[in-house]
Design goal:
This protein is mainly alpha-helical. Helices cover about 55% and strands about 0% of the residues. It has 5 helices and no strands. Helix 1 packs across helix 3 and helix 2 packs across helix 4. The longest helix is centred in the first third of the chain and has 18 residues, at about 10-25. It is globular. The protein starts with 7 loop residues before the first helix and ends in a 24-residue tail after the last helix.
Amino acid sequence: MVRLPLTPAEVERGQRLGALLRRARGERSMLDIALDARVSPETLRKIESGRVATPAFSTIAAIADVLGLSLDAVWAEISRPEREVAPVGSGPGAPRGVASRAS
């Protein structure tokens, strides 16, 4: 099977996903998050660095679950243009576009 090259929009979305996961992980170790999500630390590192721009849905679902992020919030956050992305935990009272699953 031939894999088509990623579009610039897909690459950018992958970079935003990686940045979102890094912010949400905060001070927690990459190893702990990866093991809790049952993905390899290398996979998480590649996603966070933007090297894997289109990871499998189940991989993102597992990582988001461990980080306490809703999939709706993850999609909303990575689908916006870069200038509109708010840091996790910023804003008055609640994050803009990134909510914990408890919210």
